């Protein structure tokens, strides 16, 4: 069982990823297929239970068809 690590960074990453996914009308399963990141990992990220490594951000960005900097830019603006 994972212990939630809901800190400000995790919450803002969660909001950014979920917002981008929903804007593209994608389910978590759609994003998983497009990015190669498991549905379970996407779910944990969106719940703020984990902070992604940069390689995961790159995979998710590719699946969302955005530049990884857009995720980081949106993340940085929320801080």
Question: How would you summarize the topology of this molecule?
Answer:
Blueprint: H1 8-23, H2 28-35, H3 39-46, H4 54-64, H5 68-78
CA distance, first residue to last residue: 29 Å
- The shape is globular
How many DSSP helices?
A: 5
Rg over CA atoms: 11 Å
Report the average pLDDT across residues: 80
Largest sheet: none
Number of strands: 0
* Secondary-structure class: mainly alpha
Question: How large a portion of the residues is in β-strands, by DSSP E?
Answer: under 5%
- Helix share of residues? 55-70%
Which blocks of ≥5 consecutive residues have pLDDT under 50?
1-6, 75-79
Q: Give helix and strand order, one letter per element, not per position.
A: HHHHH
Report on this structure.
There is one protein chain. The protein is mostly helical and 79 residues long. Helix content is 68%, strand content 0%. It has five helices and no strands. The chain has helices at 8-23, 28-35, 39-46, 54-64, 68-78. Helix 1 packs across helix 5 (68-78) and helix 2 crosses helix 4 (54-64). The protein starts with 7 loop residues before the first helix and ends with a helix. Mean pLDDT is 80; it is low at 1-6 and 75-79.
Write a compact overview of the structure shown.
The protein is mostly helical and 79 residues long. It has helices at residues 8-23, 28-35, 39-46, 54-64, 68-78. The protein is globular, with a radius of gyration of 11 Å.
